[in-house]
């Protein structure tokens, strides 16, 4: 039986004009994950990623630490939802920068509300697919892994939305649980599924084995 390793991208640039670029800390998280796997003799038979810059940069960091990487397959279905479009759909007025703890919490409260409405089909954020299309894109990747990579080690680099959706698909969670899982996935965290042709089974969720040592504690981030 193989294992699918789903990795959330390293810390991006929350609050900056361009979120879709890793911070120096995000790059360090990715390299550290690759180093951790190299120290354990890890090798991947297949690698898949979304097409966003933060996915590509995370994969580059992992490859730098691992010092080897097979050919990469890019799946647009692994790209994150548009949080700005979601928030604008229910809160047209600008929120302002999330530069205080209160504003940060308010930002994510509104995002969670928008996610719930999107998943229920209440809103259709501009430029975004429906929830059925978004989750269908994630499901297509999972089906591909089951049918083509049973018995292999597969690396998948994506974002919190697709990863929590994948967990929700496998476990059959309610929308509010999927949203709660989404909000808890940490940067560079690893979620593992065992792979068989018939099903995927959750083994671990949101783990940071590469950052367990005390000296790596400053690298633990969420946004």
TrEMBL record:
Keywords, comma-separated and alphabetical: Hydrolase, Kinase, Transferase
InterPro entries in the cross-refs: His_Pase_superF_clade-1, His_PPase_superfam, Mito_Ser/Thr_phosphatase
MF terms (GO), sorted A to Z: hydrolase activity; kinase activity
Gene3D superfamilies membership: Phosphoglycerate mutase-like
A Pfam family recorded for this sequence: His_Phos_1
Name listed for the protein in its UniProt record: Phosphoglycerate kinase
Protein species of origin: Acidovorax temperans
